């Protein structure tokens, strides 16, 4: 709990790593995750560091692994996670891993290339067979043209040199994609002016695409033409449309013979392709065995070399010098790990603590339960080193403030059961491996949801609300029978007054307060909302002032720990007097009125609000009687005392720091004068004897000089803090009224949903069968809207408001959040 209350002590350590054992030492530190290395070569570019060649080699291996991984995924295979804990391989194994990986990758490229080539060749053969197998009948069309022209534009008298029977008919056959067929046919007709006959037919069966592997439909075509120029145009057009062109013989018997040869070649090629794919599966099997372990080892090796690049080299080049942050309690484990890793080198690695003026990183260890609460605090800002951590108190206050706005037994129970199911299933691998982002968010905050639901059940019992309905756990403290017996209500009076008033002054009407929570009779009262508004508004103010006062109180631990005793008297004490003198007094008035005002005097009870306004105006109201004797004097005294704390807050700390700075300056000047007189009285012989000159004595060490104090900055910073605190006490107290507003909104939404859905469904059917049929869809709609509106939307709204109350109203009283996390060098995420 000490580590949770405040960050652990973190020390700056210097490591002397022998060159021969540096790799193994850093590798062991990566397995343990103890040290966050500092970059001692910040001025050196990444390309000029010592181990840049090894880093590049690891990056090349990662590229090869990426290629192999994509090939495995392309084949539809799954990579199994590596078995056991794999250490970083020694440097001498890097070349072996690289050779084995490159050989396997090259073999896979060759096999994959052969497979692609065979698939493309088989695809061409099948297309050619389909073109030859389709009965387009172009020879008959060509023969018809040979017998005589039939076009109207054909001249009746043959041209000199012979008839059309002397022209030779040629053919172009191939296949084209279906969406290009219409455009190809149209362009051929327009370009060749009709001097061709084209036949397009869709293939009966689909062919597998050699690249994507998906089935695709093709259109086969056969074009008959005469004339060399027409043929050239046809070939250019088909090339533009990326058509597959195949030889097409005029004789049908010759085409049949070619078709048989193509079918035989396809069968032989299919057998070769099956053998190639069988060999490819064997290569991929070897990749599956090598890849999981190889990826982890190369990533670890690269991380080790990157860490070694942050080390500096000693002047003798016999060891590497590293610096890093390490938790003080882990220093013995660090020293033991270095000794174990460097034992084989013959020279032991050494780690020792060194002083440092830089602010150390913050280390707060968490577990499954506290991680989500610490995440809420860190989202505002990581705490400074050794600053009070708000997370332990957030474990209680955050779910409670959420439950104040979300109080309902039914809704809280649903949230609690949902979180409990996640907690019980947290060790199942399938639950952890879920990739849904929304599920990961809920699963990460499962313990937070568990407490939020549990506290909502508690506040739901206080509000006496379960799905907006009151429950009678204990007998009511109000008696209607006693009121009816002693008031003389007649039938005429009851018919004229639909709303009846219960007078607690009549004996037997009010028997006493309800044992726990709000009396269920209030759910039937017409002034139910007014009563709850008054109760929840005052409760919100009490909780808000208590929460803020606790935050100011926690600042005491910061001032004591950092040795700033002056801030206890000049900041914390005035802040407490200002806050409690004004708003703490308001809480006192609320509680005092609850305890002192009885039922008989409730009608003439004074107004707290008027008293509080008169307190600031230094006014007196004759109609508003005081709650206790001497109230006016007490109020005036508290206001004057609170106002007197403002100049103390504004000027106290800067004046104290200015006085301390002047004292220190005078002390330093006095010591310098004494040193100067001593040097003037000393002889030259003593100077030569010591070997030091007066200039060297005067130089001193620049690291021993104190940081320069700027008075204007101190006054400005304190003025901002004073204004923020004084105005924040007012605005933050009003901000806690969101507890009342959100609680009221949640209760009213729940009541509206019950009245407009479930109550309507329950009143629709009186018979058992009808009611059962009606209630099924009604309850389904009620359940869906309850989860969607009241649990998800209202729950998210209450969560965000509780988050704001902690960040702005609570944490700014004592928590700066200007630090940075300790990020140790570890292999955990890589595994």
From TrEMBL:
Its membrane topology is listed as: Multi-pass membrane protein
Listed GO biological process terms? apoptotic process; autophagosome assembly; B cell differentiation; bone resorption; cellular response to cytokine stimulus; dentin mineralization; enamel mineralization; establishment of cell polarity
Example of a GO cellular component annotation carried by this entry: phagocytic vesicle membrane
For this UniProt entry, what is the primary localization, expressed as one broad class?
membrane
Q: Which UniProt keywords apply?
A: Coiled coil, Hydrogen ion transport, Ion transport, Membrane, Transmembrane, Transmembrane helix, Transport
Would you indicate the residue range of the signal peptide? none
List locations, semicolon-separated: Membrane
- PROSITE patterns, sorted: PROKAR_LIPOPROTEIN
Q: Which residues cross the membrane?
A: 400-425, 539-557, 577-595, 602-621, 633-658, 768-793
**One GO molecular-function entry:** ATPase binding
Coiled-coil regions listed in the entry:
255-282
Which superkingdom does the taxonomy of this entry point to? Eukaryota
Role of this protein: Essential component of the vacuolar proton pump (V-ATPase), a multimeric enzyme that catalyzes the translocation of protons across the membranes. Required for assembly and activity of the V-ATPase.
To which protein family does this belong? Belongs to the V-ATPase 116 kDa subunit family.
Q: What is this protein called?
A: V-type proton ATPase subunit a
Q: Which organism is it from?
A: Jaculus jaculus (Lesser Egyptian jerboa)
């Amino acid at each position: 709990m000490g580590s949770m209350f405040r960050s652990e002590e973190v020390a700056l350590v210097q490591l002397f790593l022998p060159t021969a054992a540096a790799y193994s030492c850093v590798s062991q530190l990566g397995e343990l995750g103890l040290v966050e290395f500092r970059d001692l070569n910040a001025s050196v570019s990444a390309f000029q560091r010592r181990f840049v060649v090894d880093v590049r080699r690891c990056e090349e291996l990662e590229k090869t692994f990426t290629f192999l991984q994509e090939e495995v995924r392309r084949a539809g295979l799954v990579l199994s996670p590596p078995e056991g804990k794999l250490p970083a391989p020694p440097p001498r194994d890097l070349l072996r891993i690289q050779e084995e990986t490159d050989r396997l990758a090259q073999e896979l490229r060759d096999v994959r290339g052969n497979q692609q080539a065979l698939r493309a060749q088989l695809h061409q053969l099948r297309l050619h067979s389909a073109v030859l197998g389709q009965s387009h009948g172009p020879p008959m069309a060509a023969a018809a043209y040979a017998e005589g022209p039939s076009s109207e534009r054909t001249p009746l008298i043959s041209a000199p040199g012979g008839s059309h029977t002397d022209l030779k008919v040629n053919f172009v056959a191939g296949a084209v994609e279906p969406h290009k067929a219409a455009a190809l046919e149209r362009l051929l007709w327009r370009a060749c002016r009709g001097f061709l006959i084209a036949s397009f037919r869709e293939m009966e069966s689909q062919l597998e695409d050699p690249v994507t592997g998906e089935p695709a439909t093709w259109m086969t075509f056969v074009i008959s033409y005469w004339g060399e120029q027409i043929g050239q145009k046809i070939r250019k057009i088909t090339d533009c449309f990326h058509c597959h062109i195949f030889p097409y013989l005029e004789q049908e018997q010759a085409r049949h013979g070619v078709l048989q040869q193509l079918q035989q070649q396809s069968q032989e090629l299919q057998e070769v392709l099956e053998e190639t794919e069988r060999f490819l599966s064997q290569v991929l099997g070897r990749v599956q065995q090598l890849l999981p372990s190889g990826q982890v080892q190369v990533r670890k090796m690269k991380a080790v070399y990157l860490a070694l690049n942050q080390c500096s080299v000693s002047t003798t080049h016999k060891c590497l010098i590293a610096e890093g942050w390490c938790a003080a309690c882990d220093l013995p484990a660090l020293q033991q790990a270095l000794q174990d890793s460097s034992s084989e080198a013959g020279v032991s690695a050494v780690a020792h603590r060194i002083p440092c003026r830089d602010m150390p990183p913050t280390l707060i260890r968490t577990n499954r339960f506290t991680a989500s609460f610490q995440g809420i605090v860190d989202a505002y800002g990581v705490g400074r080193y050794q600053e009070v951590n708000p997370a332990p108190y957030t474990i209680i206050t955050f779910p409670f403030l959420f439950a104040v706005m979300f109080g309902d037994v039914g809704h809280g129970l649903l949230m609690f059961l949902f979180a409990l199911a996640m907690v019980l299933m947290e060790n199942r691998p399938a639950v952890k491996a879920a990739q849904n982002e929304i599920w990961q968010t809920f699963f990460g905050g499962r313990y937070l949801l568990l407490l939020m639901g549990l506290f909502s059940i508690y506040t739901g019992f206080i509000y006496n609300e379960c799905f907006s309905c009151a429950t009678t756990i204990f007998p009511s403290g109000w008696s209607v029978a006693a009121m009816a017996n002693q008031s003389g209500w007649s039938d005429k009076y009851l018919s004229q007054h639909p709303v009846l008033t219960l007078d607690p002054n009549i004996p037997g009407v009010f028997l006493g307060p309800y044992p726990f929570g709000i009396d269920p009779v209030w759910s039937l009262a017409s002034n139910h909302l007014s009563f709850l508004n008054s109760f929840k508004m005052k409760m919100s103010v009490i909780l808000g002032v208590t929460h803020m006062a606790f935050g100011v109180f926690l600042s005491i631990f910061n001032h004591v720990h950092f040795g700033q005793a002056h801030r206890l008297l000049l900041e914390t004490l005035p802040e407490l007097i200002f806050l409690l003198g004004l708003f703490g007094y308001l809480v006192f008035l609320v509680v005092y009125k609850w305890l002192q005002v009885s039922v008989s005097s409730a009608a003439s009870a004074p107004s707290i609000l008027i008293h509080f306004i008169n307190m600031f105006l230094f006014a007196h109201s004759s109609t508003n009687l005081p709650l206790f004797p001497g109230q006016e004097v007490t109020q005036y005294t508290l206001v004057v005392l609170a106002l007197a704390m403002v100049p103390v807050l504004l000027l106290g700390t800067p004046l104290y720091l200015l006085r301390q700075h002047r004292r220190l300056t005078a002390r330093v000047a006095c010591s310098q004068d004494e040193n100067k007189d001593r040097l003037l009285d000393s002889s030259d012989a003593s100077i030569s004897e010591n070997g030091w000159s007066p200039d060297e004595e005067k130089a001193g060490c620049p690291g021993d000089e104190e940081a320069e104090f700027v008075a204007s900055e101190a006054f400005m910073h304190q003025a901002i803090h004073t204004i923020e605190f004084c105005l924040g006490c007012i605005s933050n107290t009003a901000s806690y009224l969101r507890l009342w507003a959100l609680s009221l909104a949640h209760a009213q939404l729940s009541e509206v949903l019950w009245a407009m859905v479930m109550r309507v469904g329950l009143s629709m059917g009186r018979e058992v069968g009808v009611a059962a049929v009606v209630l099924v869809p009604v309850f389904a709609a009620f359940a869906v809207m309850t989860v969607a509106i009241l649990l998800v939307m209202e729950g998210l709204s209450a969560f965000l408001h509780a988050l704001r109350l902690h960040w702005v109203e609570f944490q700014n009283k004592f928590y700066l959040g200007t630090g940075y996390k300790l990020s140790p060098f570890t292999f955990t995420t890589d595994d």
